[in-house]
Amino acid sequence: MLNQAALDERITKCRGILDENPDSQIFAALADAYRKNEELDKAFRVCRQGLRVHPEYGAGHLIMAKINFDRKMYDWAESELMEAVKYGGRTRATDMLNARIKTKQGKLDEAKALVNELLSTDPQNEELSELLGKIERGRLEQKKKEMESRRLFESRALEEDKDLLNKQKTQRKLDSTEALNNIANFPGMNACFFTNHNGMMVEADLPEYFDQDSYAALSTEIYRFANENVGSVRFGRVKQVLIELESEKIWMIHTGNQILVLVMSENVNLGSLKLKLSNILAQMAEI
C-alpha cells in the first residue's frame, strides 16, 4: 500500500499527464489514486469522463466498479464489474471484487463459491481467508435471522388463530330462521329452506307460489342419490350438490342433521354467495 507521500506524488504525476493529453488512458490510474486517497467524488468524476472517451476500456470499468464499491453503491459496482469482464476478461482481480460485492449484497453462497475457487489456487492468501471467515459469519447470522423471523411468524399466526377462535366462541350463534332470513336477502335468491333426510321441510323462507313439498322431496332424493353413488366408489361423503337448470340453479348443502336447499335464478353470483354462506354457516348453531 502506498504511503501518503507516494500517493500524492502519483496523483500529481497522473494529473499532469491527463492535463497534457485529455484522451489518455491514464485517467484510470488517476481515478484509482483518488479512490485510495478517499477522494471518491473526484475519483468518480475523473473515471466517468475517461470512460466517455474510452467506453470499451476494461481496466477503466474495473476502477469505476471499485469506486462505486467504496461509495457503497453495490449494484452499480456490480454493473461496472460486468463491463470490465466484458471488455477485459475475467481475472483474479475481478473475481475478488465480485466476491466482495456479493458479500455486501447478501449473496453469501455465491460469494463463498467465488472465494473457495480463488483459494484453491492460492490457499495461503490471508486476504481471501479473512473474506471467507466474514462470509461464514454472515451466513450464520442470516440463518439466525431466518429462524427468528420464522419463529415470530409462527408465533403471530398462532396468536391470530387464538383470537379468531375466541371470536368465534363469543360470537352469537344464528338459529335456522335467522340464517334463512340472511340468505333470502341475497340477490337472485328465489327460495331457501332446510329439509331433513326424510324429505320433510323443517324451516323455510319461501314465496307463496313455491311448491315446497315437491322441492323438499326432490332435493332430498337428489342429495341421497349423489351421496350413495359417490360413496360407492370411495370418494367420501358428499357435502354439496349444485344443479344448473335452464332457468334456475338448485344448491344442496349438507349441514349436519339437515340439508340446506337454495333455489336461485340462473344469473346469481355464486362466488359472492359462497362467501356469504361460509360466514352464515360458521355462525349457525348445530342443527
Can you describe this structure?
This protein has 287 residues and is α+β, with helices and mostly antiparallel strands. 64% of the residues lie in helices and 11% in strands. It has helices spanning 4-20, 27-36, 40-53, 58-70, 74-88, 92-105, 108-119, 126-170, 176-184, 212-231, 270-283, and strands at residues 189-196, 201-205, 240-244, 248-254, 258-265. It has a five-stranded antiparallel β-sheet, with helices on both faces. The longest helix has 45 residues, at 126-170. The protein is elongated. The N and C termini lie far apart (85 Å).
Work out the helicity level. 55-70%
Q: Which term fits the overall shape?
A: elongated
Mind telling me the C-alpha Rg? 38 Å
* Neighbour order of strands in the largest sheet: 2-1-5-4-3
Can I get a quick summary?
This protein is of the alpha+beta class. The chain contains eleven helices and five strands; from the N terminus they run αααααααααββαβββα. The protein has two domains: 4-142, Tetratricopeptide repeat domain (Serine Threonine Protein Phosphatase 5, Tetratricopeptide repeat, Alpha Horseshoe), CATH 1.25.40; 176-283, Beta-Lactamase.
